Amino acid sequence: MAHPKEAAMLQIVHHSSQGALKFGPLLIVHGLFGSARNWGVVARKLAMGREVYAVDMRNHGASPRFATQSYADMAGDLAEVIRSLGGPMDVLGHSMGGKAAMVLALTQEELVRRLVVADIAPVAYDHDQSRHIQAMRGLDLSDLASRSQADLRLQATIPDPALRAFFLQSLDLRASPPAWRLNLNVLEAEMPKIVGWPETQGQFTGPVLFLTGSESRYVLPEHRNKIRSLFPAARFAKLTGAGHWLHADRPRAFEATVMAFLGGEAAGHA
């Protein structure tokens, strides 16, 4: 059973191993606007023969609020978590979390056994997520009685129902008044760093899987030279029919691919 656990600075959700321990522990690092809770089902499926830990990144979920969201800071947070749990660990990072995990591996290689980077490349992107922050900030939170009511109100600014559902997972309806479990002001101010890449030097020579969605444009063929220069042992896999949120679009295929790389067998897959 998953239960919250404090370690270092970040909030952690621990998923105990299903069955006897056969493999080393796994740390899951969510993307922008996400949380450890978003990964609950996938994390439990991955906890076959291993301990799995999912974190709330700084300025997300139940983790502390800070004035910065740089990748050096986020990688430092992850390093503290791994050391507190006895490291090293396998690390799985998605999107922003994938970039933070890459910086961690490049700067503190001794803490990372194997790395899974989900649908992101070590490059700067020109898209800006600030419009989503403005939509969340503009949501009328007064007299909200349910998530479905919040969804109706958010339709005007976020037409995609899947995106609305994802964002609304970070809305705390138990708070009075309801509040976002996100530090929107800092995330907006630090957006250039989040969509950017810090040009971290060095190499991580351990095993790395770059797992992408076939419908996503985040990891392109022209990124491979950059990837291989930083991660010479990089391998590449693609999930058919999945977009950027590939773990939500194709969860069972995602789990099976990650398990095949890390060792082990995903629940429900022979």
Distance between the termini: 24 Å
Task: Estimate the global geometry from the Cα principal axes.
Answer: globular
Q: Which oligomeric form is depicted?
A: single chain
- Stretches with pLDDT under 50, minimum 5 residues: 1-8, 266-270
CATH architecture of the largest domain: 3-Layer(aba) Sandwich
Keywords:
alpha/beta, Rossmann fold, 2 domains, two-stranded antiparallel ribbon, 17% strand, disordered C terminus
Explain what this protein looks like in three dimensions:
With 270 residues, the chain is α/β, with parallel strands linked by helices. The chain folds into 2 domains: 190 residues, Rossmann fold, CATH 3.40.50.1820; 58 residues, no CATH class. It has 11 helices and 10 strands. The chain has an 8-stranded mixed β-sheet, with helices on both faces. A hairpin with a 4-residue loop joins β1 and β2. The radius of gyration is 18 Å and the shape is globular. The N terminus and C terminus are likely disordered.
Summarize the structure.
The chain has 270 residues and is an alpha/beta fold.
Sequence-ordered SSE layout with sheet pairings:
Blueprint: E1 3-6, E2 11-15, E3 26-29, H1 40-46, E4 52-56, H2 71-84, E5 89-94, H3 96-107, E6 112-118, H4 130-137, H5 147-154, H6 161-168, E7 171-172, E8 179-180, H7 184-189, H8 191-195, E9 208-213, H9 224-230, E10 234-239, H10 246-249, H11 251-262
Parallel strand pairs: 3-4, 3-5, 5-6, 6-9, 9-10
Antiparallel strand pairs: 1-2, 2-4, 7-8
